[in-house]
Amino acid sequence: MRIFEPQVKHLIYAALNEDIKGGDITTDAVTFKKDPAIRCEVIAKKDSVVCGLQIFSMVFDIISKDNYKIDFLSGEGDKAVKSQKIISLKAKASDILYGERTALNFLQHLSGIATISNIASKELEGLNTKILDTRKTIPGLRMLQKYAVKTGGGENHRFDLSSGILIKDNHIKLAGGIKNAMEAVKKHYSGLNFKIEIETATLEEVKSAVEAKADVIMLDNMDIKTMKKAVKIIDGKALTEASGNITIDKLRKIAVETGVDYISMGSLTNSVIPADFSLNFVE
User: Fold this and answer.
1) Where are the domains positioned within the chain?
2) Any catalytic annotation for residue 220?
3) Is 197 a catalytic residue?
4) Which stretches of the chain drop beneath a pLDDT of 70?
5) I need a labelling partner for 160 at 20 to 30 A (CA). Which of 26, 221, 264, 282 fits?
6) Residue among 266, 259, 263, 269 at smallest CA distance from 251
7) Is 136 tagged catalytic?
8) Which residues contact 225 (CB under 8 A, 6 or more apart)?
9) What pLDDT, on a 0 to 100 scale, did the predictor assign at position 53?
10) Are 63 and 27 spatial neighbours (Cβ–Cβ below 8 Å)?
11) pLDDT tens digit string along 255-266?
12) Catalytic entry in 123, 133, 199, 220
């Protein structure tokens, strides 16, 4: 997954407008008589996976135009250890101070997601089970958040409501059962090659999803014992996805004991702790 400037530039403009639409009254006073070119460094305060270097740079594309120099001392997706320098930036002091918080906010948020995604992926190392994100994202930031998940080593579930069919519990209630919901979807999209996923919460629903010939069956909020029974019932007739209140410490146990194909975690994006970076003037 790649990030293209037109896809995110409006987000950066919105973030800058939020922070500096009225100027920076402190920086304006301090740099009123003298505004020298300054070099600064961004340093990791904790171990983390770096994500968002391009976004960081784009902030200063907007603020400084071509009047700045940036060197990335770490690559996108690389692991940075505590006290490691990851960016060197030289620009007018006022430009750095105007853009610092916005640039760091993006970098820290995306690196936080990449870091937890990497930890989750490592938990499943050597197994066939893959980690997935969800649509539980901050409004407006989904593309960047899903990009960060991929950067950290996770996989993306559907991007939006049009990029995959997922028959959830409320669809099933509305249609009057799994069979009716599946028939409605297949009739509506007759001739189109959409994979169909069905959410299930009980073993009876799992049996119905198998009978309906779902491509993927979500095992929602099931304990491990129930998931094992569900996977046995499915018996390779569909891919399987464990979902619902799953935490890092449970990942490997779920994967090993149940053999599910995927585990999805909303917490990769909706409750992430930002990575910790500082920006310091060095000359």
Assistant:
1) 5-116+272-281, 122-270
2) yes
3) yes
4) 1-4
5) 221
6) 263
7) yes
8) none
9) 97
10) no
11) 999 999 999 999
12) 220
SS3 labels along the chain: CCCCHHHHHHHHHHHHHHHHCCCCHHHHHHCCCCCCEEEEEEEECCCEECCCHHHHHHHHHHHHCCCEEEEECCCCCCEECCCCEEEEEEEEHHHHHHHHHHHHHHHHHHHHHHHHHHHHHHHCCCCCCEEECCCCCCCCCHHHHHHHHHHHCCECCCCCCCCCEEECHHHHHHHCCHHHHHHHHHHHCCCCCCCEEEEECCHHHHHHHHHCCCCEEEEECCCHHHHHHHHHHHCCCCEEEEECCCCHHHHHHHHHHHCCCEEECCHHHHCCCCCCEEEEECC
Q: What is the pTM of this model?
A: 0.94
Q: What angle do CA 170, 210, 155 make, to 5 degrees?
A: 70
Residue 29 identity: A
Class of domain 5-116+272-281 (CATH, top level): alpha beta
Catalytic residue among 197, 199, 241, 261: 197
Q: What is the pLDDT of residue 1?
A: 58
The catalytic position among 39, 85, 90, 101 is 101
In the set 135, 142, 158, 168, the catalytic residue is 168
39, 90, 92, 136: the active-site residue:
136
Spatial neighbors of 140 by CB under 8 A, at least 6 apart, are: 11, 14
For tokens 């799953």, the residue is 246
Digit-coded pLDDT (tens) for 89-123: 999 999 999 999 999 999 999 999 999 999 999 99
CATH annotation of 122-270 = 3.20.20.70
